Amino acid sequence: MPSAVRRWAGFELRERQYSDELPDAVQGPWYPNFRVVFTAAVSGDVRLETESGHVAGEPWADFAASPDANSNGLCEQRYGEIVVLSRTYSDGTMEDARNSVEFRASDDETIIASVTAPSVMHRDGCA
C-alpha cells in the first residue's frame, strides 16, 4: 500500500495513502492510517519511549523478562501495551480488535532493534 514516509534520526512516521474510499470493514481505529517506528532512544533532544518506558537499544533480555513482553508462539514479534477495541461489523457481528506496540529484537537478540506502533494484531495474534 502506498505510504508517505518521513524520517528523522531514530524516528519514522508512515502515513498510508488511500486512493479509494475504504470499505466499512477496515475503517476505524482498529486500522490506523499511520505508524511510528523508533530505532533509537532519542531523536535530537526528544526521548523516544513507550508509555511503559521501553526504548530502542534497551537490552532485549531485560525487555523479554518484563511483564510488558507479551508474546504469541505463532509470531516472531513481542507486544506490549495492547489496546483492545470493541468492533461491530455491518452485519451486527462483534469482536475485540487489538492494536499494540510491537518490539523487534536485533539479529543477535541483544537489544530492542525497533519499537513500532500502532500495530494491528490479527486473529491469530500476529501483526
Q: How would you explain this protein's 3D organization?
A:
The two termini are 16 Å apart. This protein is 4% helix and 44% strand. Strand 8 and strand 9 form a beta hairpin. The longest helix is centred in the middle third of the chain and has 5 residues. It is built from 1 helix and 9 strands; from the N terminus they run βββββαββββ. Strands 1-2-3-9-8-7-6 form a 7-stranded antiparallel beta sheet. A two-stranded antiparallel sheet has the order 4-5. By secondary structure, the chain is mainly beta.
- CA gyration radius, whole angstroms: 16 Å
Describe the sheet with the most strands: 7 strands, antiparallel
Basic shape:
globular
- The run of helices and strands is EEEEEHEEEE
| Helix/sheet category | mainly beta
Strand content: 35-45%
Tally of alpha and pi helices: 1
User: Which residue ranges are poorly predicted, with pLDDT under 50 across at least 5 consecutive positions?
Assistant: none
Short précis:
With 127 residues, this protein is mostly beta strands. The protein is built from 1 helix and 9 strands, in the order βββββαββββ. Strand 7 and strand 8 form a beta hairpin.
Q: What tags apply to this protein structure?
A:
globular; mainly beta; seven-stranded antiparallel sheet; 9 strands; single chain; 127 residues
Question: How would you summarize the topology of this molecule?
Answer:
Layout (H helix, E strand, L loop, with lengths): L2 E6 L2 E6 L17 E5 L3 E2 L2 E2 L12 H5 L5 E2 L6 E11 L5 E12 L6 E10 L6
Antiparallel strand pairs: 1-2, 2-3, 3-9, 4-5, 6-7, 7-8, 8-9
